C-alpha cells in the first residue's frame, strides 16, 4: 500500500496537506537530518527531500547556493540514500518524495537508482527536468520498485498535456503557482483556480502547490484557490542556518493553517 | 513544453517560407558581409608544408560566425510576435551578435554572461552595452558559460510568453540544435563551393574549434556527404587532458542530460557537472551539442584537443605570418592545423577561422607574461 494513501485519506476526510522540503547535506549531513526530524516532529504530512545538484535549473538562488555549499561540504548520493533511511526510521507513515535532477538518476544507472529508492523507503520521485514525454525512460524501473513518479503542472499546462501527465503520474501533482523558479516571491498566476479545476477533471491525485508558498496566509490562499495542500522549500532552506526553533514554530503554524 | 512546440512550428514554417529566407539572405549579404572569403594562407602553407585555407568567418560583421544564427533567430522571434530577446554568451561574440541584431531590428535585449567571462572579455561587454543591450553578470557556479545558460533558461521559463531565448550554439532542447545548425550551414555551403571554384578540389581535412559546437557543425555540414573529407573538431585541452583543467568533452566526457538535451558531459560519478577550464571563454563549456556526440560515435568526425599554451602560440603565429589576429577559440583549430600540416605534408587543410581576436589581446598578453609561454 502506497504511503501516499496517508495524504489522500487526510484529504478525503476534508483536511489539507503540508509537505515541506529539506535539502539533504545542507549545510552538512547532520544538520539536514536534524531539520527533517524537526519537520516530522512538528506534524508535517509528508516530506519533499532534495538532493543537491550543481545546475538546478528549476530552482532559485536560495536552493542553488545551498546546494553548492552541500556539495562543497562533501555531499554524495550514497550519503543521501543513507540519510533517507534514517529519516524513514523516524516515521513509517508519511510519504517521502525525492526531488532531484535527471542527470543524477542517469549517472547512478536508472535501475540501480530506483532500487536504491525502494531500499531507502522513498515513495515517489520528482525529476523537474524530465518532461512527461520522456517518462518512458524511467517508468519501468520506477514501477518495478513501487516508486511513483511525481510530475509538475504549471499555469501553462494545456488539457492535452494534463492527460499525458495523468497517464504517468503517481503520488500527487506538484502545482507550480507561477511561471519561473523556486523562491519565496509571491507572484501567483491568475490562472491558478482554472489550473486546479483542470487537474481535478483529469486525475484523482492530490494537487499540492509549491513555489512561493511560505506563510500561513499564502497557504490559505492556495487552499482557497483549490489546492489540496502546499509545499514550502526555499523558506525552510533559509531558516536552516538560523535559530533551530524557527523551523519548528514555522512548521507548526503551517500545519495549523492548512488544517484551517 | 508548449513554448518549444510553438518554436518548432514557427521555425519549420519560417524555413519553408521563401520570403523569410530571402529576407534573411539579404540581411546576411548587405549588413552581415556574406559571403565571407576563402583565403589561401600562403606563408603558413610554405612554412608548414601543406596547403592551408582559412574560411574567413572572422570577417563577418561582429567579428565571428555568431551573427549568422543571431540574425536568423531574431528575425524568427519577430515573426513569432515576441517583443524581447535574451541570450547567453561565453566569449561575448554571441552576445555582441545578438545585441547587434536586436539594435537593427529594434528589440530590447538582455545578455547573461558569467562574471569570470565579463572580466576576461571586457571589450565585448563594452560593445554589447554600446549596442543597447543589458549585460547581466552571472555569479553562480563557475561563473562561465554553463552558468550563463542556466540563468538565461530560468529567465525564459518565466518570460517565454513575450521573450525569445536566442541560444548561441547547437545545444539545448529541440528545436535549438536543429535551428542553430540551419542558420550556420551557410558556412559549409559557401566553403564547399569556394574550395571547388578556387582550389578545384575538396580539402582533405576540414577543421574547426568546438565549444558548444556551432561553427564546427556549420562547417562540417557542407562536407558531411563527401567521405573523402576528414572532419576534425578541436577541443580545449586547457592545462592538459591528463589534468582536471580542460574542456575536452568529446575526448573525455560521458553521457549526460542537462540544458534540455542528452549528450556528453564532463561529470563525476554522481552526475555533478564539472567546472571546465579553457583560456578561451567561448570553449569553456562542460557539455557539447548532441550532434557532435553522434558524429563522434558514428566515426564521421574525430575530435582532438589543443592546450592553452599551444592555442596562444597559434594566436601569435597566425598574426605574424598572415597578418590575421584569430580569436583564441579559433586559435585552437589553427594550432592543430599546423601540427597536421607537418604530419601530412602536401595535404589540403581547410580551417574555419570562426572569429577575430581583437577581444583577446589583453587576456593573451597577461597570460604570456604569467605563464612564460615561449612564442
Largest interface: A-B, 30 and 27 residues
Query: For the terminal residues of chain B, how far apart are their CA atoms?
Result: 51 Å
Give the C-alpha Rg of chain A.
17 Å
Output the number of helix runs of chain B. Answer: 15
CATH architectural grouping of chain A: Alpha-Beta Barrel
What is the strand tally of chain A?
9
End-to-end Cα distance of chain A, whole Å, is: 28 Å
The main β sheet of chain A shows up as: 9 strands, parallel
Shape of chain A: globular
**What is the number of helical segments of chain A per DSSP (H or I, 4+ residues)?**
12
Strand order across the biggest sheet of chain A? 1-9-8-7-6-5-4-3-2
**Secondary-structure content class of chain A:** alpha/beta
CATH superfamily of chain A: Aldolase class I
Percentage of residues in strands of chain B:
15-25%
Considering DSSP H and I runs of 4 or more, what fraction of the residues of chain A is helical? Answer: 40-55%
Largest sheet of chain B: 6 strands, mixed
Number of strands of chain B: 12
What is the general shape of chain B? globular
Give a brief rundown of this model.
In chain A, 48% of the residues lie in helices and 12% in strands. Chain A is of the alpha/beta class and 260 residues long. The model of chain A has no long low-confidence stretch (mean pLDDT 95).
Question: What does this entry look like structurally?
Answer:
The complex is a heterodimer of chains A (260) and B (375). By secondary structure, chain A is an alpha/beta fold. Chain A is 48% helix and 12% strand. Chain A has one domain: Aldolase class I (TIM Barrel), CATH 3.20.20.70. Chain A has twelve helices and nine strands. In chain A, strands 1-9-8-7-6-5-4-3-2 form a nine-stranded parallel β-sheet, sandwiched between helices. In chain A, helix 2 runs parallel beside helix 12, helix 4 runs parallel beside helix 6 and helix 5 crosses helix 6. With 375 residues, chain B is of the alpha/beta class. Chain B has 15 helices and twelve strands. In chain B, the strands form three sheets. Chain B has a six-stranded mixed β-sheet, with helices on both faces. In chain B, strand 7, helix 10 and strand 8 form a beta-alpha-beta unit. The N and C termini of chain B lie far apart (51 Å). The model of chain B has no long low-confidence stretch (mean pLDDT 97). Classes of the chains: A alpha/beta (260), B alpha/beta (375). At the A-B interface, helix 3 and helix 5 of A face helix 8 and strand 9 of B.
Amino acid at each position: 500500500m502506497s504511503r501516499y494513501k496517508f495524504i489522500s485519506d487526510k484529504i478525503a476526510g476534508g483536511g489539507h496537506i503540508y509537505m515541506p522540503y529539506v535539502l539533504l547535506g545542507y549545510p552538512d549531513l547532520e544538520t539536514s537530518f536534524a531539520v527533517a526530524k524537526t519537520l516530522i516532529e512538528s506534524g508535517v504530512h509528508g516530506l519533499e527531500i532534495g538532493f543537491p545538484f550543481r545546475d538546478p535549473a528549476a530552482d532559485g538562488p536560495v536552493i542553488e547556493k545551498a546546494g553548492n555549499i552541500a556539495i562543497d561540504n562533501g555531499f554524495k548520493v550514497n550519503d543521501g540514500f543513507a540519510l533517507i533511511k534514517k529519516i524513514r526510521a523516524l516515521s513509517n507513515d508519511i510519504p517521502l518524495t525525492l526531488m532531484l535532477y535527471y542527470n543524477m538518476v542517469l549517472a547512478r544507472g536508472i535501475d540501480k537508482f530506483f532500487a536504491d529508492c525502494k531500499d531507502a523507503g522513498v515513495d515517489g520521485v520528482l525529476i523537474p527536468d524530465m518532461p512527461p514525454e520522456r517518462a518512458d525512460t524511467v517508468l519501468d524501473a520506477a514501477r518495478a520498485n513501487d516508486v511513483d513518479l511525481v510530475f509538475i503542472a504549471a499555469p501553462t499546462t494545456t488539457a492535452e498535456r494534463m492527460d499525458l501527465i495523468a497517464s504517468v503520474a503517481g503520488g500527487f501533482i506538484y502545482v507550480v503557482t507561477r511561471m519561473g523558479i523556486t523562491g519565496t516571491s509571491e507572484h501567483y498566476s491568475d490562472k491558478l483556480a482554472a489550473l486546479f479545476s483542470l487537474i481535478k477533471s483529469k486525475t484523482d491525485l492530490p494537487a499540492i502547490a509549491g513555489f512561493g508558498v511560505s506563510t500561513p496566509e499564502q497557504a490559505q490562499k492556495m487552499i482557497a484557490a483549490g489546492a489540496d495542500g502546499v509545499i514550502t522549500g526555499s523558506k525552510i532552506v533559509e531558516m536552516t542556518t538560523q535559530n533551530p526553533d524557527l523551523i519548528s514554530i514555522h512548521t507548526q503554524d503551517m500545519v495549523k493553517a492548512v488544517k484551517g | 513544453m508548449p513554448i518549444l512546440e510553438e518554436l518548432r512550428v514557427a521555425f519549420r514554417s519560417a524555413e519553408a517560407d521563401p520570403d523569410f529566407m530571402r529576407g534573411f539572405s539579404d540581411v546576411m549579404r548587405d549588413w552581415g558581409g556574406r559571403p565571407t572569403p576563402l583565403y589561401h594562407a600562403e606563408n603558413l602553407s610554405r612554412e608548414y608544408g601543406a596547403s592551408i585555407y582559412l574560411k574567413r568567418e572572422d570577417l563577418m560583421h561582429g567579428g565571428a560566425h555568431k551573427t549568422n544564427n543571431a540574425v536568423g533567430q531574431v528575425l524568427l522571434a519577430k515573426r513569432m510576435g515576441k517583443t524581447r530577446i535574451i541570450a547567453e554568451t561565453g566569449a561575448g561574440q554571441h552576445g555582441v551578435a545578438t545585441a547587434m541584431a536586436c539594435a537593427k531590428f529594434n528589440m530590447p535585449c538582455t545578455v547573461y554572461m558569467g562574471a569570470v567571462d565579463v572580466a576576461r572579455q571586457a571589450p565585448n561587454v563594452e560593445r554589447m552595452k554600446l549596442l543597447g543591450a543589458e549585460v547581466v553578470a552571472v555569479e553562480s557556479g563557475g561563473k562561465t558559460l554553463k552558468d550563463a545558460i542556466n540563468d538565461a533558461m530560468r529567465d525564459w521559463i518565466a518570460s517565454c510568453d513575450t521573450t525569445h531565448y536566442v541560444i548561441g550554439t547547437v545545444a539545448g532542447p529541440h528545436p535549438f540544435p536543429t535551428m542553430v545548425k540551419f542558420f550556420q550551414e551557410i558556412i559549409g555551403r559557401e566553403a564547399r563551393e569556394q574550395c571547388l571554384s578556387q582550389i578545384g578540389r575538396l580539402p582533405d581535412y576540414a577543421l574547426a574549434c568546438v565549444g558548444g559546437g556551432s561553427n564546427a557543425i556549420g562547417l562540417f555540414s557542407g562536407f558531411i556527404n563527401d567521405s573523402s573529407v576528414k572532419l576534425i573538431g578541436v577541443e580545449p585541452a586547457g592545462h592538459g587532458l591528463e589534468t582536471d583543467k580542460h574542456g575536452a568533452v568529446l575526448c573525455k566526457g560521458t553521457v549526460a542530460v542537462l540544458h534540455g538535451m542528452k549528450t556528453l558531459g564532463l561529470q563525476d560519478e554522481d552526475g555533478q557537472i564539472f567546472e571546465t577550464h579553457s583560456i578561451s571563454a567561448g570553449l569553456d563549456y562542460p557539455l557539447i551539442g548532441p550532434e557532435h556526440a553522434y558524429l563522434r560515435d558514428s566515426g564521421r568526425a574525430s575530435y582532438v584537443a589543443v592546450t592553452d599554451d599551444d592555442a596562444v602560440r597559434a594566436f601569435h603565429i597566425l598574426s605574424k605570418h598572415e597578418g590575421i589576429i584569430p580569436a583564441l577559440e579559433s586559435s585552437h583549430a589553427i594550432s592543430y592545423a599546423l601540427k597536421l600540416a607537418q604530419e601530412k605534408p602536401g595535404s589540403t587543410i581547410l580551417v574555419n577561422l570562426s572569429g577575430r581576436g581583437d577581444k583577446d589581446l589583453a587576456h593573451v598578453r597577461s597570460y604570456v607574461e604569467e605563464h612564460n609561454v615561449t612564442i
